[in-house]
From TrEMBL:
Gene3D superfamilies: NAD(P)-binding Rossmann-like Domain. Signal peptide: none annotated. This is 2,4-dienoyl-CoA reductase. Keywords: Oxidoreductase. Pfam families: adh_short_C2 (PF13561). One of its GO terms (molecular function) is oxidoreductase activity.
Length: 293
């Protein structure tokens, strides 16, 4: 059913009106994994709106450079780096390069990830490893590299992880990603405990649907309207409000926030009721396990 016209649908401010001062990250450097496109780019741009210098890392240097150019247009220094976060030597080298170019990394956004719809019994070992190692190993390796450097300097810092709202329920065709994102959320809590005494805060966002140019959300017939009709807030998320919340958790405004997994999904995870559409098993869906192709 379409969202009725009399429903109030709250909208965020436009991208040019971030919810924090333009200099709140002045003099700091953030490293964003997978920051050249999509949700990682939104995170990177949100940090830039607060004045942070931004190191963009990704497996594709072309995408990282393209993202860095868009971020630089906001008036901050940027640097693009090719790095596969599954490998500790590449992660260490990426931090070295970022710090040579932009100064000590005091903020970290773990966004790098991979996902694609596939039934659990059809997931190959390579496919399983491709998704889980980027999210789990990548988050761990980047976070520990970051923490060792901050502890050695005797300075604190902040980490934000991009998780997913289906970590508590799973999602059709997503056994690999659900497992990886759940591990990432648990890791968030553990690392926050380990590093609190060093002034290093660690949080995560369990993100819902934020359609963007590289996402699959909304590609079925009817586009994003189909998703919006399923969400209590009456709409999917705007990608810049995800970026803002990510950056906000790392500001001094939320200095007491650590070890938290914040759900940002417009209430989609709360919509369970007796009045639900008929359930169709993923294998029987005409448009694939995610409901679209």
């Amino acid at each position: 059913m379409p969202v009725p016209s009399h429903h109030i649908v709250p909208l965020p401010p436009p991208f040019g009106a971030p919810p924090y001062p333009a200099d709140i990250f002045a003099g700091q450097t953030v490293l964003v994994t997978g920051g050249g496109t999509g949700m990682g780019l939104a995170m990177a741009m949100a940090f830039a709106q607060g004045g942070a210098n931004v190191a963009v890392i990704g497996r594709s240097i072309d995408k990282a450079e393209a993202g860095a150019a868009r971020i630089a247009a906001l008036g901050v220094r940027t640097h693009a780096i090719s790095c596969d976060v599954r490998w500790p030597d590449q992660v260490a080298a990426a931090f070295d390069e970022a710090e040579r170019a932009l100064g000590p990394v005091s903020l970290l956004a773990n966004n790098a990830g991979a996902n694609f719809p596939v039934l659990a019994e059809d997931i190959s070992v390579n496919a399983w490893n491709a998704v889980t190692r980027i999210a789990i190993d990548g988050t761990f390796l980047c976070s520990t590299e970051f923490a060792r450097r901050r502890i050695a300097r005797g300075q604190g810092g902040a980490i934000i992880n991009n998780s997913a709202q289906y970590i508590w329920t799973g999602f059709p065709g997503d056994a690999h990603s659900a497992a990886a994102k759940t591990a990432q959320a648990t890791m968030t809590k553990k690392l926050a405990r380990d590093w609190a005494a060093f002034g290093i805060r660690v949080n995560a966002i369990a993100a819902g649907f934020f359609p963007h140019e590289t996402s699959t959300a909304g590609r079925r017939e009817g586009g994003t309207e189909v998703l919006q009709n399923m969400i209590p807030a009456g709409r999917t998320g705007s990608i810049h409000e995800f970026g803002w919340l990510s950056a906000m958790t790392c500001t001094p405004l939320l200095a007491g926030l650590t070890g938290q997994v914040i759900v940002q999904d417009g209430g989609e995870s709360l919509r369970r009721s007796l009045m639900m559409p008929d359930y169709v098993p993923p294998r029987e869906r005409a448009e694939g396990p995610w409901g679209w192709r």
